[in-house]
Amino acid sequence: MKFFKCSSGFVSQILFAARCSAMFAAVCVLPGGCATATPSTPAATAVFPGASWAAAPEPEPGSACRRELDATRSYLRTLDTTALMAVQDGRVLFSEGPVQSVSIVFSVRKSVLSMMYGKYVANGTIDLDSTLADLNIDDVGGLLPIERQAKLRDLLAARSGVYHAAANGGDDAAAAPPRGSHMPGSYFLYNNWDFNAAGTVFERLTGRDIYRAFADDLATPLQLEDLDLARHARSGDARRSQHLAYPFYLSTRDMARLGYLMLRQGNWRGQQLVPADWVKQVTSQTTPAAQMHPPHTARRGFGYGYLWWLFEEPQDSQLNGAYMAWGVHGQYILVVPKRDMVIAHKRQVPVAGNWNVSWVGPVAFLRAARMLAAAPCRMEEW
Questions:
Q1: DSSP 8-class letter at 287
Q2: What is the per-residue pLDDT across 314-343, written as a single tens digit (0 to 9) for each?
Q3: Which top CATH class is 13-339+356-381?
Q4: Which of 195, 257, 309, 351 has the fewest CB atoms within 10 Å distance of its CB?
């Protein structure tokens, strides 16, 4: 099969989706098709940050690496990027802006929750095949009998068939079908009810506060530099739904640590914080782009796993096998196994108290990401 490279840097999201999704419809099989790539550096020999990130060696002036990094920096300064950090082979290759600045990361929270689930699925505390009825999950006004048949794994895949109002906005609920119209597991809709209820289930089954568990299971062993737990609390309109959101406030450099843990298959300095099998499972496709709803979500050209967005890219693309946590306004954790790279990007919100600020959308961000992934900056490329 012949592949052609798709670049989203210079085309619209619609063209990007049409080119890439069409080529991969034949090879992405549901479920489990288009699994992500494995990193080129095994965890046993990988470099890890300590209390702070180490920098990669500075490229020589005039080198191809230097030129590409400079071009990326110039491009980023045309955007409303707050900060970006690119880590390759465990060291900081590129940094722009105040990477220590902390702000809300919006829907990146969902990918963080996905990571947290792994330990408890592996030890049997959480059973993904438990239904909402088994778990005694209900909501304001009651769930329908068909909705209570949804399994926990359906929530993680955004395929629950539960179209009850969520406690917070920022999803595709406006395009939801009528309640009870789809069997659980049969229809993708990016719906905050699923994601928030998954947070409720995590707390009930583990008996732990979601933020305390994050601090103990991930933040402390990863040595996150800028986490302030006191800032964190579940939020939303409990009159609409009893399952509240769980916002996270992270710095760009700490976002990069979370991405690097995923890149290293859940292993951090020999300690398996997230089971490797779980990393593979959550970054394997449950929904290809072509099967997403509504159409504007399908046109983005990304597949979906368990709370991670997956790239549908040709084999010769640097982003083949990549996956991403994605929050509104421009919050991204992009994991690029093919280049042993993590790229974290932040668009800080609010700005001077204003929440209605400009976005750095995926097309703009991915143009910068492709430039960084293509830069010949590894020692063997010099």
A1: B
A2: 999 999 999 999 999 999 999 999 999 999
A3: alpha beta
A4: 351
